[in-house]
Amino acid sequence: MLDASSLQDAYRALLDAAATVAGADDPGPTPPDGEWNADEILAHVSLVSAATIAAVAGIAAGANTTYDNRIALDTWTIRHTITRAGGNAGLRDRIRGQLAALCALAASAALSDAELGTLVPARLLSHDSLLVDQPMPLRDIVTGLAEAELPGHTRQLLALLPERAMTEAAR
Hints:
Layout: H1 5-22, H2 38-60, E1 67-68, H3 75-85, H4 88-106, H5 113-116, E2 119-126, E3 129-137, H6 138-158, H7 163-170
Parallel strand pairs: 1-2
Antiparallel strand pairs: 2-3
Helix pairs in contact: 1-4, 1-6, 2-3, 2-4, 2-6
């Protein structure tokens, strides 16, 4: 069984940052070229979360599975996800549901320690750079979400706030 507290904390911090950005009185700085706005960040997180849920569910079902984040980087897929979710509020609701699903699968008796140790062929990219192209234990995929992916996108969201709002959010 996996301890879900760090996963829950990372998702909550991301969702709090997203709500703060969405509720800011004045728009934040435009993201630099090649960077995402808040909706695009949330759509990406939703797609990564869905891929993680699929990998966890696959292992729980005894199926062979892979983990590949390339679709979560695709511009068309990100825009389509924003539209299908209904924008920012819908994306935040979707991510909350994905958190619940992921915790129900990965942090319960649904998976044994041996299943969490299952090697999953993984391919992870970031900014067109290959980060991982080798099998990873399922546990590391889930903990990587909590320890690196979600905190990185939380910082990315907060960077979109005007300086005044960022100071208030840090309090």
